[in-house]
Amino acid sequence: MEASARNGRELLAAAGVLFPDEHGRVLVVRLPYDRKHPVAIPGGGWEPADLSPRETALREIAEELGFTPRLGPLACIDWTLDDFRPPIAAHLYWAEPIGAEQAAAIRADAAEVGGWAWLTPEETGHALPPRLSRRVTACLRAPRTAGPLELEDSWPAGHTLDHLAVTPPPEYTGLAGVAALGSAPSVPPEPPLDRATFIATRPRIRAKARTVFTDAAGRVLLVRLRPWDGPRGLVPYWTLPGGGIEADRELPRAAARREVREELGWEVEPGRLLALDWLPSAEAHPAGGRDTAVLVYVFDGGTVPDGMLAEIALAEDELVDWRLCEPAEARALLSAPSWARTASALAARERTGGPLELVDGRPVGV
Predict the structure, then answer these.
(1) How far apart are CA 15 and CA 9, in angstroms?
(2) What CA–CA distance (Å, rounded) separates 209 from 242?
(3) Deepest in the core among 11, 13, 334, 350, taking most CB within 10 A?
(4) Can the peptide bond before residue 148 be classed as cis, meaning omega within 30 degrees of 0?
(5) Residue 6 falls inside a structural domain
(6) What is the tens place of the pLDDT at every residue in 7-38?
(7) 313 and 187 in one domain?
(8) Considering the domain boundaries, does residue 7 fall inside one?
(9) CATH of the domain at 166
(10) In this structure, how many other beta carbons lie within 10 angstroms of the beta carbon of residue 41?
(11) Structural domain range at position 222
(12) What is the spatial distance between Cα 321 and Cα 329, in angstroms, rounded to a whole number?
């Protein structure tokens, strides 16, 4: 579905960093202004000038801790839900281990970080609030080769279920027993904005869920959209099946399932998450012309038998055609970023582990 209405589709984006040390401990910070959940992982919210969540992570660490880390691969993508705010697409990155000399050079911004400490994985699981604890604990428990992990509301999803069982999070203790972080001030400083105002003023992104289907010959299934009154809608164009995620009411896998049902008339379960493609906003990448960033989830639909292709029932209010395309034809029909994304997703079918991290269709962090 490519309708221009955006109500309910916007979400927040954030990026954090897992810093290990040579002893296998993890760096956590104390938030001086957070009375309820004072222990966190370094990181913060996306800004429109950030080219990608990876840049968000680098900027946030420079602002909070006073140095620029060397980031490794994406550890996980986590679509988190809450009754009191929009969903958040949370990206968590691995950083290269920090040695004693680098740790000594940390210069924390006192307004953002009230203290920092190295905790064992077990201590980290207890100190972090439950949702963040589930996310971080999953990354610490799973083999690195399984990453990036796919999480939904911080629970394992997709291929992550092959590596992690769904288990209750550790008991939440917060600051209790973490003396290295110091105690919370008796009168914590007031945050610059109250929670509701802060959330209302944060920039939003949008997200899409698309699915790659091929036939026995390896041709990829594309659909052609009906023209509509929108930035690209005056001329119908080709794309992978899928569309916007209704961020306020569904998770990415549910969105992929719904879009395939609505557009093709198929009831299929999304396969492995092949790619995460970040399309920057115009503020970060003027040539793209997007009013905000878009995060595209690309799932594997597998090989479709001829009988199933014969049963395609196009959503006539949205689509005008479908076609099975050899790679050269798909490249000619798709926009450059869409073809790069599709080619990356097809290549990801041949590898193990989690989704490729892409920016405008091109792999990053590899």
Answers:
(1) 20
(2) 6
(3) 13
(4) yes
(5) no
(6) 567 899 999 999 999 899 999 999 988 888 99
(7) no
(8) no
(9) 3.90.79.10
(10) 20
(11) 206-363
(12) 15
